[in-house]
């Protein structure tokens, strides 16, 4: 499909009544459809016969998400086309809801586009037409500028009017949309605020897109949050709740509809009949302290350090002795090095409520503990980071004098591993003691059994990757593997019969980057070559001296629930640069795309790993 700009204007002219101020428009949403690329030979661009293949998602389908916007606030979507010109079609859907008060008279209702192709049809769903209706005279056929529909006033009704625009791509190029507006009597009606939710790492409640705490996530502190106009509306499948916290989740916006109180982790909201239903939530702190009778849970636990010098072993920080004089044999000591660190394994996941750091107090050395960070993780890590997501509380800390023997840090974070480190070159880390307070995390599990989230290190060191959907999914009789075609840079999936010319299957080496993040390094395409997701979401092989951001992925449980013959060797991969986007093939070419939760997407984003 040729690059295009669709500029949609909903012009709604009403009789002059006081009800005009009550007309509301919800933010536009986008759905990439569940059909995938379909074979259809169009007689013309925008052929109306193509709509018979469309499967319009329901209003509450979990694949709906907020339509992206440009810097001006207009709807702006651009993605690469994966079709053959005039031989295939690919549907994209857009929806909004216009609420028309009962005492408002509609005299004109139109949808207009500016510079659009290839095809677009406007459907309306309301009390008059619960199964939807459209005017074929308002279909966009082929490329047009300043296209306007007929007057659709006879198709609207008082109350909610769901507008669905079914747009399809039938020529290979980019697929784009820009600008959606609602106007009443010549004046634009601003959609309900497209709210954003600020992640609060110090909060006690975290919501997740997928079961088993996967996908997009956001952490909340005490407060009330209406997430209707955000990317998290109606997509949440699991929740983590720290001890001493409570969240009440609501089915509808403004804290209405069915509600459920949650006080511990829920790894699958299906167990509460609340999967993909949350539109608002209220977070409370129900106790001011979650410590276990003041017991130091760090004492005697296993710990380690980046290095050891002058006999200052890591275990000295958990021996129960807070004496800061080095001569008392109670302080740790690293080498003079870059980013020195000390780490403890609590042995299980705890809801940590406070951490107390005791410093070395010798006149010579107390000031070494400057600008240090305290980080908390649920899984073991291999590298240091100051990412706000993993900071226990706040930013860096510093001791100000030898008389200041300790710093207490109050917070709420779920951790098994606590790391203290000083970023920078030529640093020495010494600790007299680290005391940690909290209680074991409680997890409410669903009645169904689920597979634990795999880690990056569970991947073989060297491997090849097979597509599930064309193997176990039986879309094809042959096996299709990660490959490059005829020496190009685009990554595809190819079968044995497709390996012609310069085509080759890719041999991958896992490059661990810490915190379950890794990169696909290609061994048989030249030196320092990586699989990289570009800004247009296409996946290419690129040469790089250091790992590019687009090359970083997380290993997650396979999205498909279908059982393959090698079930334990399947994985899905989430992009770090494009959160919530997963490595998948579409038209046998690799992309990173957001999960629309269709079975087609889940299968196309699930991969079999074969050790080399």
Short description:
Helices cover 1% and strands 39% of the residues. The protein is built from one helix and 42 strands.
Description:
This protein has 612 residues and is mainly β. The protein folds into four domains: 8-189, Jelly Rolls, CATH 2.60.120; 205-285, Sandwich (Gamma-B Crystallin, domain 1); 302-440, Galactose-binding domain-like (Jelly Rolls); 456-611, Trefoil (Acidic Fibroblast Growth Factor, subunit A), CATH 2.80.10.50. Helices cover 1% and strands 39% of the residues. It is built from one helix and 42 strands. Strands 2, 3, 4, 5, 7, 9, 10 and 12 form an eight-stranded antiparallel sheet that branches. A hairpin with a 3-residue loop joins strand 20 (245-252) and strand 21 (256-262). The radius of gyration is 28 Å and the shape is globular. Residues 1-21, 288-293 and 444-452 have low confidence and may be disordered.
What's the topology here?
Blueprint: E1 8-14, E2 24-25, E3 29-31, E4 38-39, E5 65-66, E6 76-80, E7 88-100, E8 106-113, E9 119-125, E10 140-141, E11 147-148, E12 159-169, E13 174-178, E14 180-184, E15 187-189, E16 205-210, E17 214-220, E18 223-226, E19 238-241, E20 245-252, E21 256-262, E22 265-266, E23 280-285, E24 302-305, E25 341-358, E26 373-377, E27 406-421, E28 433-440, E29 443-444, E30 462-467, E31 481-484, E32 491-494, E33 504-505, E34 508-514, E35 517-522, E36 529-533, E37 539-543, E38 552-556, E39 570-575, E40 581-586, E41 589-594, H1 599-604, E42 607-611
Parallel strand pairs: 1-14, 22-29
Antiparallel strand pairs: 1-8, 2-7, 3-5, 3-7, 4-7, 6-13, 7-12, 8-11, 9-10, 9-12, 14-15, 16-17, 16-19, 18-23, 20-21, 20-23, 24-25, 25-27, 25-28, 26-27, 30-34, 30-42, 31-32, 31-33, 34-35, 35-36, 35-38, 36-37, 38-39, 39-42, 40-41
